[in-house]
Design goal:
Helices cover 4% and strands 51% of the residues. It has two helices and 15 strands.
Length: 270
């Protein structure tokens, strides 16, 4: 079993080439935050399945703190994930991601990651200068387009998109900088539906995504994401096939949401 990268899995890591398709135009440089707030914390449980039998594989927690960076107020977002200790001897995961996001523009200023997945260990730091359209890493300085996101800021960017103009199968493009490259990405809007999670039943907005080929994922557009159909836009379920079996990620708890969780139709009893 390889529950690897479930922090990335939660962060909409949708690698693909750009496609032609019908999609309403929005100025994503002007996305304003209406969904998250300082003090928000969201926890997730990760399940792994072979032959439709799900087992507990690990967990992840995302938190938001308000801090100051170079005289600017920023959201210090942290995403940390761990594999189930029971399976550490097979494949140990200890991941930590951090993003410092300008509260006014929702653009990332600093991104950090410290990843330990099996035998793979990786550390990375990116400093963004949006005025000069550059990103600086340990490998040098690189040109970036306007409104580029990092891995973690992508989630909080996506939560603030106005989905009302989109029709089913519309693609929503954006740019991400990772490992010294700018990637052209998209999410595909799949409409609205009710989803039953291990936390409860939600009214949800549904997306699909194409994943990274050559990893534990198949590279096809087979990840499906459900976010709450309310003012919070919290991801409550993420589901994806992998090379052997599948992974399901469900929200397991939350603190200090900005708005009432009105999309929750019925919470499951413990």
């Amino acid at each position: 079993m390889k529950p690897a990268g479930f922090v990335i899995l939660l962060m909409f890591l949708f690698f693909s080439s750009e496609e032609k398709g019908r999609s309403p135009q929005q100025d994503f440089c002007k996305v304003k935050n209406t969904t998250t707030q300082a003090g928000e914390e969201i926890a997730y449980t990760v399940y792994y399945s072979v032959a439709e039998l799900y087992v507990y594989a690990g967990y992840a927690v995302f938190s938001n703190k308000l801090e100051m960076l170079d005289g600017k107020p920023v959201y210090h977002i942290t995403g940390a994930g761990r594999s189930n200790k029971k399976y550490d001897w097979i494949y140990q995961v200890r991941d930590r991601y951090e993003s410092y996001i300008d509260t006014a523009t929702m653009q990332p200023l600093i991104f950090k990651r410290d990843v330990h997945e099996g035998k793979v260990k990786k550390k990375e730091q990116i400093k963004f200068d949006h005025s000069s359209h550059t990103a600086t890493t340990d490998s040098g300085t690189f040109k970036i387009p306007s409104c580029v996101q990092d891995v973690l800021s992508t989630v909080y960017f996506a939560r603030n998109i106005d989905f009302s103009p989109f029709k089913e199968n519309d693609r929503i493009p954006y740019k991400m900088f990772l490992e010294n490259e700018v990637h052209s990405l998209f999410i595909r809007y799949l409409g609205k539906e009710v989803v039953n999670t291990t936390f409860g039943k939600f009214k949800a907005i549904k997306f699909s995504a194409q994943l990274v080929p050559g990893t534990i994922f198949s590279g096809e557009e087979d990840m499906v994401v459900w976010v709450t159909d309310d003012a919070n836009r919290v991801p409550v379920r993420i589901q994806s096939s992998i090379l052997i079996g599948s992974i399901k990620v469900d929200m397991s708890g939350y603190k200090n949401l900005r708005h009432p969780l009105t999309s929750l139709m019925k919470k499951k009893s413990k």
